[in-house]
Amino acid sequence: MKLQRKNGLRATALGALAVSGALVLTACGSDDNTGGSGTGGNSGEKTAAASTIDCGDAKGQLLAAGSSAQKNAMDLWVKNFQAACSGVEINYQAIGSGGGITKFTQGQVTFAGSDSALKPDEVTESQKVCKDGKGINLPMVGGPVAIGYNLPGVENLVLDAPTLAKIFDSKITKWNDEAIAKLNPDAKLPDTAIQAFHRSDESGTTQNLHKYLSTAAPNEWKHDPKSKSWLAPGGQAANGSSGVAAAVKGAENSIGYFELSYATAQSIPTVSIDTGAGAPVEATTENASKAIAAAKVKGTGNDLALELDYATKAEGAYPIILVTYEIPCDKGNKAETLPTLKAFLNYTVSEEGQKVLADAGYAPLPTEIAAKVREIVPTLS
């Protein structure tokens, strides 16, 4: 089956990716991404990874919120950091990128997690809480946004950007539509209505899908690619990636988008994308890495916002990708939380912190990007 082949690819790819340093995310574990991380308490159990953590002057509680794509990563980091650093509490709420940025610009959290870089107006807003400074984008993890579907009797579904755009824009409404049939000549497509699910909350995952469709299917997708909110008409909404995944899992003839980890956790088949390359590309960590490897730093100074290539036609490169950033103030952080912020981010981007992710189904940052983040974190003030 496709899922079994995909899991095999993932297992094979992780070893290679850890060596190459490709920037890829495929979280494993809990799929609850609508509330807090559940890691607010100190586990009291020091792991091998946690034993090498430099706690510095970390103390007290640190609040953070945002991206649900990195929830499982945060769970691991928080568990190890709290086990090593007595009396420290890291509380990360996976409420979506938009919600996290709002809390950050309102001064309610020390840093935000976002699957998209800060927009100019958000940087301006951050200057109100970052005294003499601003919010900056520090990449930590990235990976594929899967298009999951529930269509009994149909395996190995292939779609391209124009067809996806029309499905999510309610212009293709039946599974046996000519455009879908042309891409899947051997499939027995039913004459049933398509149930398309999207995020109800502001989401960097939504924004990355917008950017992909706007770039790869500009004639079919006319919605603002910078928006974190769903803009297309029709469809049904669900909260968080876990909500969309659960909706697709529970409704036949449905389709939706979420990080690959949610598809893997719930055994939801995913669409292969016809990019114009020699063969359709599956949503795997290895294939996403081929697209993310071409990312370039577009930020200036200490800002490491990346520019992704959503229109790639490289062989085996999966084009629907995202990068998750941690967003703190470069200057003007609160004195009471600054030591904990720096110690925690120093750990997450350290070789040990990245290695923990690799062991759990993630891949570490590319060497050159990780090195830049490691230089910036100690300068936070």
TrEMBL record:
Q: Where is the PBP domain?
A: 58-352
The yes or no answer to whether the keyword Transport is present is yes
Task: Give the signal peptide, or none.
Answer: 1-27
Which Pfam family is one of those matched by this entry?
PBP_like_2
Tell me which UniProt keywords the record has, alphabetically: Phosphate transport, Signal, Transport
Q: Does the keyword 4Fe-4S apply?
A: no
Q: What InterPro entries does UniProt report for this protein, alphabetically? A: ABC_phos-bd_PstS (IPR005673), PBP_domain (IPR024370), Phosphate-bind_PstS (IPR050962)
Q: Which domain of life is it from?
A: Bacteria
- Give the protein family: Belongs to the PstS family.
Give the matching PANTHER family. PHOSPHATE-BINDING PROTEIN PSTS
The name this protein carries in UniProt is Phosphate-binding protein
Q: What is the lineage of its organism?
A: Bacteria, Bacillati, Actinomycetota, Actinomycetes, Kitasatosporales
